[in-house]
Amino acid sequence: MKFKVGILAFALLACHFSLSAQTAEINHLEIGLNQNKTGNYADALRNFSLEIEKTAANPNPIAFYNRGFAKYNLKDFQGAILDFNKALELKSNYFEAFIARGQSFSKQDNHPLAIQDYNEAIRLNPLEGTAYLSRGISKNKLENYRGAITDFNKSLELLPDYAPTLAVRADSKSKLGDYAGSIEDYNKAIEITPKRTNYLSGRAFAKMKIADFKGALADFTEVVKLSPEKSEEWYYSGLCKAQLENYRGENGEKGALEDFNKALELDPENIEAMYGRGFVKAKLGDQRAAMEDFTKAIEFGNNENAKILYTAKLGKIQLDEIRNGLVDRTKMSDMSAGRAEVFFHRGLAKAKTGDPKSAIDDYNRAISFHPTYADAYFQRGIAKSSLGDQRNAIQDCNNAIELNGKFAEAYFIRGIIKLALNDTTGCLDLSKAGELGYAAAYNVIRDYCN
């Protein structure tokens, strides 16, 4: 079960510097802070980048910290760490940055480093409850449940009745076999925040451990009402019903069979649900159908599917959006001076019609006329990638970036290709693309970099 703890609630209040001196020009820092407050993280990031560029001679740790905050919320944890590093380099006692960097390490499952940062934050500010909460979560992940509970207790002293802390303490108690104590904490958390599905699921699991399947079913029933798209929760609902021998629904109510069917509708490779449905079918006397499900469960269990990278989803629509964006930026030039442009645009047209090989010929001609044509290198790289020549595609992206250091789309495509080649530095390229304003990069970071 996953518990999500947001980055510091007071993060946006960390700016202790006067902004009044910047009234004569666009105040990117203040705009970014307001955008962070409203959850407009992509635009906030762009404004913080502009502020950082503007104040390069006298860098402001607040700008780096808040850009890191925006990246964190866009799930770009690696990029966030780089910004928090810079904030701490500029301001060594920045305890909020230690907590934020620790939370970023935690999101990458690097809990030992996260705990080091939380320790330093607590040394700098021993009355900050968020630091104890975050350190407790990392200890919990490292299976130091008693140490985690000690931190959660301290956090609750400083921040009483905070539902997320109660919920993670409940999880630690459950891991130690204290199911009654776990249920008590979940009860309090749910009383404070009634509609949190992870709290209800956590309490349901604790109830299952003490064989209270009726009580657990009541919680899972509420969960699937709130989040009907979760295959796993439908499976557990079915499991409780199977334990209660409610195999087939009656009087309009779903039984275990219907719940397992729903779980498999949402996730056809849910092995547990496949097995559960086979069990129920056997109980209902349909042995042939039961054997089919058991066989599929075994087959799925032995089948390690390769991870499908985002490249498989980078289809014609998105590529055309990238191409059209470049065309929009291109200005019409005189024919005699712009012969490279003619070949470039013909290459784009060929690529759009599905002929990347001929497109490459035109991009080659464009580059021969205009050797510093960054867009042509970039598009040639995309065409090479579509033909399976990933190494040379990366080289063309390198050329484009060398010629235009702010070429966000080139960083994006290079990052995608690197990930396809199992090169995790692709995540840094995606982070740079997002930093330069290509917001689509954060969708890939969220799915493949964490």
Automatic annotation (TrEMBL):
Cross-referenced PROSITE patterns: PROKAR_LIPOPROTEIN, TPR
SUPFAM superfamilies associated with the record: TPR-like
Keyword list, A-Z: Repeat, Signal, TPR repeat
Naturally occurring in which organism (per UniProt): Aquirufa originis
Top-level taxonomic group: Bacteria
Name under which the protein is recorded: Tetratricopeptide repeat protein
Per-repeat ranges for TPR: 61-94, 95-128, 129-162, 163-196, 271-304, 340-373
Signal peptide location: 1-23
A family per Pfam: TPR_16
